[in-house]
TrEMBL record:
Gene3D superfamilies: Phosphatidylinositol 3-kinase Catalytic Subunit, Chain A, domain 1
Tree of life domain: Eukaryota
Family: Belongs to the BolA/IbaG family.
Pfam families with a match to the protein in the record: BolA
GO cellular component annotations of the record: mitochondrial matrix
InterPro entries named in the record: BolA, BolA-like_sf, Mt_Fe-S_assembly_factor
Name recorded for this polypeptide: BolA-like protein 3
Length: 118
């Protein structure tokens, strides 16, 4: 079973007295906090953090599907950086980010999707 880990977004006020009645959109700063899910093992967490840093995905799932030995992973990514590029180029981008890790794997199940098509 795969569990989606989505990005956490926090809106914080840039003014000293954040009364909702007198704040405009321009007074808010969008801050994103990316936290790897706690259920990931260390290898999954490494992959998750590497992809998160490079791609800033909307949704990212990483799962060791090898039975725990770390030889095969299932990765699902929905990302704005994939907008307007073919699935093959999306996969090549992910493969280039994880090339060192993939060299030691038996296999990879990769699903990618552009955020505007999700």
């Amino acid at each position: 079973m795969m569990i989606s880990a989505t990005r956490r977004i926090l809106l914080s006020s840039s003014s000293s007295s954040p009364s909702l009645s007198n704040l405009s959109k321009s007074s808010f700063i969008l801050k994103r906090f990316y936290v790897a899910p706690t259920y990931l093992n260390p290898a999954e967490k490494h992959i998750y953090e590497k992809l998160e840093t490079e791609l800033e995905p909307v949704i990212l799932d990483v799962q060791d599907v090898s039975g725990g030995c770390g030889s095969m992973y299932a990765i699902n990514i929905i990302c704005e950086k994939f907008n307007g590029i073919s699935m093959i180029k999306q996969h090549r981008l992910v493969n280039s980010i994880l090339k060192d890790e993939i060299a030691g794997w038996h296999g990879l199940q990769l699903k990618t999707k552009a955020a505007n098509k999700a």
